[in-house]
TrEMBL record:
Pfam families: YdjM (PF04307). One of its GO terms (molecular function) is hydrolase activity. This is Metal-dependent hydrolase. Coiled coil: none annotated. The chain crosses the membrane at residues 58-76, 88-104, 124-148, 155-173. Keywords: Hydrolase, Membrane, Transmembrane, Transmembrane helix. It comes from Halomonas salifodinae.
Length: 358
């Protein structure tokens, strides 16, 4: 999640745990702790693939953060003792303020490496977009009441209760969408295909489903207010013929570890060279995928891994721009019409099948 939301969550947790004993100081210290794990963004791991896949790693590990919380609790108990705050209170405060950050990140598309250093890959159960105004406002409302009112702990608890209720709503919405999507996938023989169901930007009313089937991937938008309208699937090429080449290089392996099967591969000219590029299909939607990475270049008839991977912008936006896409998405929130046809934003050579209404 964004830094503002993480600070608000840490502040609300801090106020709920120690607001009665520390007052508004618990809110301020909680906000600082809530943003602490994201300081890893200042680290440069050497290239674009490493920077994306290493983020939310060591600094988001439950093991590391629990150890850090224990150390901080001991230090505060030793050097900043407060009569009515025990070591157990300090430990609970620091643990909850710190680990709430990666636990919330785990509810977004990219998830987080909760079990680092175990090589388990990112843990993700996406029920909220990386920026969700309603979730953030629920927390900020409680914090505002805590900062101006006399009952710090009570206000923070109410903010957490409202924000957690929103997460429960989002989880229920995801289950509803998955149930509506199941018959459409079964009709295509995709019942057991790898899939990712996630909310579209800034809301939990319209959800995007991405399904992988060999050389193809399917996209569908399903809204809570779609009524009886069945989900329509758009089918795209995935460039799977380039996957073995990508996986033969360390950066390709790392991306596959990070994104699973949700990658598209292509070869295109980049700076005058034939370049193998992998695009993460999870974030954004067709035509607007922000994470595409160079992996290898063809030199003298053979493929060589790039020395430093670059992150590239998507070139397939000839039929529209982000503003137009977001406007269509906003009009899609309250029902199936007008449809948001993602194929409008994708180069024709990547489209295998678009619904008739597109």
């Amino acid at each position: 999640m964004d830094s503002l939301t993480q600070a608000a969550l840490g502040a609300a947790v801090g106020g709920a745990v120690l607001g009665r004993r520390l007052g508004r100081k618990a809110v301020l210290l909680g906000a600082l702790l809530g943003t602490l794990p994201d300081l890893d963004v200042v680290l440069d791991y050497g290239d674009a693939v490493a920077n994306v896949t290493e983020h939310r790693g060591v600094s988001h590990s439950l093991f590391v953060l629990t150890g850090l919380a224990s150390l901080l609790a001991l230090l505060f108990q030793r050097f900043a003792p407060i009569r009515n705050i025990s070591l157990g209170h300090w430990w609970t405060f620091f643990v909850l303020c710190l680990v709430s950050h990666p636990l919330l990140d785990a509810l977004t598309t990219y998830g987080t490496q909760l079990w680092w250093p175990l090589d388990a890959g990112p843990s993700a159960y996406p029920i909220v977009f990386i920026i969700d105004p309603l979730y953030t406002l629920a927390l900020l409302g409680g914090l505002l009441a805590a900062l101006v009112g006399p009952r710090v702990r009570r206000a923070c608890v109410w903010g957490l209760a409202l924000s957690c209720s929103y997460l429960l709503f989002a989880a229920g919405a995801k289950l509803t969408v998955e149930q509506r999507l199941a018959p459409a996938l079964a009709a295509r023989g995709l019942a057991s295909a790898p899939r990712l169901v996630q909310p579209t930007p800034f809301n939990t009313l319209v959800w995007r489903a991405t399904v992988i089937d060999g050389d193809d991937h399917y996209e569908a938008l399903v809204g809570l207010f779609d009524g009886a309208a069945p989900p329509s699937l758009e089918r795209y090429r995935r460039g799977a013929e380039w996957q073995p080449l990508a996986l033969s290089h360390p950066r390709g392996e790392r991306l596959a570890w990070f994104a699973g099967p949700f990658l598209r591969y292509e070869v295109r000219d980049h700076q005058g060279q034939e370049t193998l590029i992998a695009t993460d299909l999870r974030l954004g939607f067709p035509g607007f995928h922000p994470f595409a990475f160079t992996l290898a270049t063809r030199e003298g008839g053979t493929w060589q891994p790039v020395l430093v991977s670059e992150q590239l912008a998507s070139p397939y936006q000839a039929n529209g721009d982000r503003r137009q896409a977001l406007a269509r998405l906003a009009s899609r929130l309250w029902g199936p019409e007008p449809p948001l046809c993602t194929s409008h934003f994708v180069a024709a050579e990547w489209i295998v099948e678009a619904p008739s209404h597109c």
